[in-house]
Amino acid sequence: MNLSPNIMSGLQDLNYTELTELQEKALPTILEGKDALIKAEPGKSKNATFVIPALAKIDAKENVVDTTTLVITPNASESQQIDELIWAMGYHAQIECASIDLDGDEEEQKQLLKDAPQVIVGNPGPLLNLLQDLRYVFRNVDYLVIDELDKLISLDLMDRVQNILKRVLSKHQTLIFTSDLTKEVEDFAEKNLEEGEAIGFDPAETQVLNKPPEVPDNLSQGYIYVPNRMKISTFMAHIEESSDDRCVIFTASKRGTDRLYKILRKNNFKATSLHGKLSDKKRAQRLANFTNGDVQFLLVADISAAALNISDVKQIINYDVPGDPDEYRYRTGLVSSGKAARIVSLVSKQDRSDINKLEKELGQVPKEMDLPDKVKQKLKERRQKKKKSKSKSKSKKRRGGNGKKQQQKKKKSNGMELPRPSYDKLSGGKSGKSTKKDKKTGVIEMLKNLFS
């Protein structure tokens, strides 16, 4: 690290010989003067991550006579620890610091504030009270740290933090540290960081602070209305008609990605896939295979386009239409410039509302594309088959109906009907009349006649 001898001596005094993983990720960005939202757990590693650049910045100046660094932290013990770290690391550079915390004496802290040390570390409550009492504003702060933002939010201290920030009148670099990324943290970071970077977050969270790009006016955007139960057929026919350029395909689920991967490989296309459950090593390897040109198709599920470090892609296919317009914008940002570059969405019946929402939100209407020729042919064959089956069923009904009518007519023309059996008076037979012969039939009658 390119630090001054004074700061290096302070690090040596504290036996700081190696950077932690967090510091390796964050210090280059911070030392360049960029705003950042940094994920970090409480502790010395996190504190040193913002203290070292602050001291380097102060030591590089001449005749600093006012407060140039302000650190806001939620509790007294943390404020005191940061104060001690600054004093020890900045000892050889003669950098002064004051802690305005909940445990301090109010009158002593007022005097410390009036003395305008180069660094002030404070808790929101007591710091705001002193600033209001003294009508104090910061005119030369160029380095602002908001420490443990998630904790400040949970302790309901954000109104006080906002009032303190109103008193920082100078242009400054802003660093925000948090151990958890909540919606409140994200909203605050978006409002208070200027072109900030997100450091230490999972790939799925990296889109925070990255505002979606505007959709280029010259980008070719289209969609294909997919016939019922023909989505895969439409997809395969479309890529067969497309060029051999690299293509990224977004699906709504890992299951959908796995299915398309098998189909592509079965048809001798080179493909690889990315999803949220992959290890960092596998993700990097598969991404490298695509960027190096070893495979033509990259299938993506459960990962935002904002998290993909890809450029110069000729075609993006939305196998499933994204419901979020910002995600659509991120995907257009992956497409290279040129006439052949385009983004195509496959719109099934259930996707109609999503494509309508995109059209409304983007202010640009993607053009409806013709179905691929193969799909048109299959659709034609399907309709013809359906038409034949309908005509067959109609002819059967007609034949069955005419036969019955002919039988009825035949009966009427003969003027007679088949005899119907009568079942009343069963002993009398079909006519129902008993006869003398009938009486002498049967076992009982035979016995009577025998013994009579």
Automatic annotation (TrEMBL):
Q: Does the keyword Hydrolase apply?
A: yes
Record-annotated membrane-spanning stretches: none
Q: Where's the motif Q motif?
A: 1-24
In the record, which residues are listed under signal peptide? none
The UniProt entry, under InterPro entries, shows: DEAD/DEAH_box_helicase_dom (IPR011545), DEAD/DEAH_RhlB (IPR044742), DEAD_box_RNA_helicase (IPR050079), Helicase_ATP-bd (IPR014001), Helicase_C-like (IPR001650), P-loop_NTPase (IPR027417), RNA_helicase_DEAD_Q_motif (IPR014014)
- Residue ranges of domain Helicase ATP-binding in the record: 27-199
Where in the numbering of this chain does the Helicase C-terminal domain appear?
Answer: 218-383
Q: Which domain of life is it from?
A: Bacteria
Q: Which residues form the DEAD-box RNA helicase Q domain?
A: 1-24
Keywords linked to the UniProt accession: ATP-binding, Helicase, Hydrolase, Nucleotide-binding
Supply the SUPFAM superfamilies for this chain.
P-loop containing nucleoside triphosphate hydrolases
Is the Cell wall biogenesis/degradation keyword given for this protein?
no
Q: Region Disordered: list its residue ranges.
A: 360-452
The annotated regions of Basic and acidic residues compositional bias extend over 360-378
Name under which the protein is recorded = Superfamily II DNA and RNA helicase
Give the source species: Fodinibius sediminis
